[in-house]
Sequence to fold (254 residues):
Amino acid sequence: MKNLLGFFVSVVCFFIICMLLPGSGTHVHAYVPEEMTPLVKSKQNQKIAYLTFDDGPSLNTMDILDILDRYHIKATFFVMGNEEPYAKKGYEEMKSRGHAIALHSYTHDYSIVYKSPESFFQDLNRLEAKLHKEFGIKSRIVRLPGGSNNLLRHQAATRPIINGILQQLSEKGYIYVDWNIDSTDGISPSISEQQIISSVQKGTKGQKHVNILLHDINSMKNTVKALPDIIEYLKKEGYSFDTIDETTPKIQFK
Fold:
């Protein structure tokens, strides 16, 4: 009993320390405490689906949240900086309903975020400051616009910039997360509901951990329509659902 109590005290202390870290400036390295190693190993042996939504909040956020509530599922939202009135409710509802809120980009403007590592972190820190000041939200989990292996990483002029960003993310204590299933909903608003569902179904074949890229964008109405069928399929295939945190097995592009 004492060992169990000690474990939980250690975990609580770890998260309290994380909560006290400043939103910008020098960061300690993100790591998994030794006491949490069993949790990491436990997740590695389970069949888990991580539903992740990029680019919100949007006009679709409330519908997405309602569907997730209906199935008692928590998701991870990689949010942007949105100043529209509807976005304020979106941030608040994501938080109050117990979903994970992670960092994507304030602007999602490639000409800004990938101008230099310094420009990337100015944009990211702006998002962090907004989330912390207005909603009391802090996160060390990041998804780069376009993913960590986006087209700019394959161009000679911008490859050093992306590599520098990835290196500094690690040095500053962030964890960046990509995906292993692209629902293809982000290609165009014209992507059909059925194509989104089929992309997820095909992607799960032989996969124990599925990190599914979805989008929370005003124009992506078919994402909302496809979501119940995606969830039903994953449940039928024996997946449980979880949010992304420091204990999640990392899915990162090479």
